[in-house]
Specification:
Layout (H helix, E strand, L loop, with lengths): L3 E3 L3 E3 L2 E3 L3 E3 L2 E7 L2 E7 L35 E3 L5 H13 L3 E5 L6 E2 L15 E4 L7 H17 L4 E7 L9 H12 L4 E7 L3 H7 L6 E2 L7 E2 L4 H12 L8 E5 L5 E2 H7 L3 E2 L4 H9 L7 H13 L10 H4 L6 H12 L2
Parallel strand pairs: 7-8, 7-10, 8-9, 10-11, 11-12, 12-15, 13-17
Antiparallel strand pairs: 1-4, 2-3, 5-6, 14-16
Helix pairs in contact: 1-5, 2-3, 4-10, 7-8
C-alpha cells in the first residue's frame, strides 16, 4: 500500500506545482521556467491546508514537489466549447487519434448541452478529465464568473483533472489576460489536478489583423515581432495532453510560436505596403466597426503590445508537445491574403 502525502503548492521560478495527494517515492514532473521535467524523489509532505495556496508559495524543504506519473487508460474526457474554433480542432484531432472524448456546448449536436451562463446545465457526472476552453469573448467579470462556476461544478462532481487553455506569459500586457490569470489561480488552488496550456496568439488572428486594405497594411504593430502559433498546433498540443492527462498533471506549458515575425515581414511576403497608422487613428477606425464595447480595447492592446515588443518570446514548450510545428508566418500570410479588402 503506497504512503500518501499532501503536497503543498509551491513556485520554482516561473514553474508552479499545485497541492495534490500522490504516492511517495514516485517519479515526478517539475516545472522549471515553464517546462515540465522529470525528477525522482521521496515525498515528505505537509497536511496543513493553509500552506496549499497556489501561486507564489515559498518552497519548504519538508514538502514534496511534483505531479503524478502516467497511467494510460480510457478515462472519460469532456471538452467544453466544442463548437468553437480551437475546441472543434481539438475534437477532430482527438477522434482521429482514438482518444475517447465527449463534447459539450450549447449546440444540440454536442454530447452534453452545457451553457456557461446556466450553471444548472453543468452535467459533469462521470468525467475524470475536463478540458475547459476559455470563455474569453466577454467582459472580464463575465469570463471570471463563468470559469469560476465551471470549476466549482467540476470540484463538486468529482472531476479529477482540469486542462485549461490559457494565454502565454508574454501576453500579460494584453487587455484580455486578466481573466486568464484569475482562472489559473483558481484552478491551482481548486484541489483538483490541473494542466495549463498557455496558448500564444493565433497565427490566423494575426493574419486577419494585418490584412491589407487597398493594398496597405495600416494596423499599428510597429516593427515588433510576434511569436504567433497555428491554431492547429495548439489543438495538437491539447490532444497530446488528453492522450495521457495524468502524465501532464500539474504542468504549465508556454505554447508560443517557434519563429517570431513582424508586420513588415508579413507585408513583404504578400507584396503589400506596410504603412502603420497611429494608435489614435486605429482606435477611430475600430470605433466605426460593429464591435462589442470590450473588443476595441482588446484589439488595441494587441497592437500596442506588438509595437512595444512584448509579444515575442525567447523560449517555448511547443515542440515538447508538437514536434514539428507549422509555419506560423505562412499561415498568417494566407489569412491576410484571403481577408484583404
Amino acid at each position: 500500500m503506497p504512503q500518501w502525502t499532501n503536497l503543498a503548492a509551491v513556485s520554482t521560478g516561473k514553474g508552479r506545482i499545485a497541492g495534490r495527494r500522490w504516492p511517495t517515492a514516485q517519479r515526478r514532473h517539475i516545472i522549471v521556467h515553464g517546462r515540465c521535467v522529470s525528477h525522482e524523489m521521496p515525498l515528505i509532505g505537509t497536511t496543513d491546508p493553509s500552506r496549499v495556496n497556489g501561486l507564489n508559495q515559498t518552497p519548504n524543504p519538508e514538502d514534496g514537489i511534483g505531479c503524478h506519473t502516467s497511467t494510460k487508460g480510457r478515462a472519460m474526457i469532456l471538452i467544453t466549447g466544442a463548437s468553437g474554433q480551437l475546441a472543434s480542432h481539438i475534437v477532430t484531432r482527438a477522434r482521429q487519434k482514438g482518444v475517447a472524448i465527449l463534447t459539450a456546448s450549447r449546440a444540440a449536436s454536442a454530447d452534453r448541452q452545457i451553457d456557461f451562463d446556466r450553471p444548472e446545465t453543468f452535467d459533469l457526472s462521470g468525467i475524470e478529465t475536463l478540458l475547459m476552453t476559455s470563455a474569453g469573448s466577454a467582459e472580464d467579470d463575465c469570463v471570471m464568473r463563468r470559469h469560476g462556476a465551471v470549476l466549482a461544478a467540476a470540484r463538486a462532481q468529482g472531476v479529477r483533472q482540469v486542462v485549461y487553455t490559457s494565454l502565454t506569459h508574454a501576453s500579460d500586457h494584453l487587455g484580455f489576460a486578466l481573466a486568464h490569470r484569475w482562472t489559473e489561480r483558481e484552478l491551482r488552488t481548486s484541489g483538483m489536478a490541473w494542466t495549463i496550456l498557455r496558448n500564444g496568439l493565433y497565427a490566423e488572428l494575426i493574419g486577419d489583423l494585418l490584412a491589407p486594405r487597398g493594398g496597405l497594411i495600416t494596423t499599428p504593430f510597429g516593427t515588433g515581432r510576434v511569436s504567433a502559433v497555428a491554431r492547429t498546433d495548439l489543438a495538437q498540443a491539447a490532444v497530446t495532453v488528453l492522450s495521457d492527462p495524468v502524465a501532464h498533471a500539474n504542468c504549465c506549458y508556454e505554447l508560443s510560436g517557434t519563429a517570431a515575425f513582424s508586420a513588415p515581414d508579413l507585408a513583404r511576403k504578400i507584396a503589400a505596403t506596410y504603412q502603420p497608422s497611429s494608435f489614435e487613428e486605429e482606435r477611430a477606425r475600430l470605433s466605426a466597426q460593429p464591435l462589442f464595447p470590450f473588443q476595441q480595447p482588446m484589439l488595441m492592446s494587441i497592437s500596442s503590445a506588438a509595437a512595444a515588443g512584448f509579444l515575442e518570446t525567447n523560449a517555448t514548450d511547443l515542440t515538447r508537445l508538437v514536434p514539428t510545428p507549422l509555419d506560423a508566418l505562412e499561415i498568417s500570410c494566407t489569412v491576410a491574403r484571403q481577408s484583404a479588402k
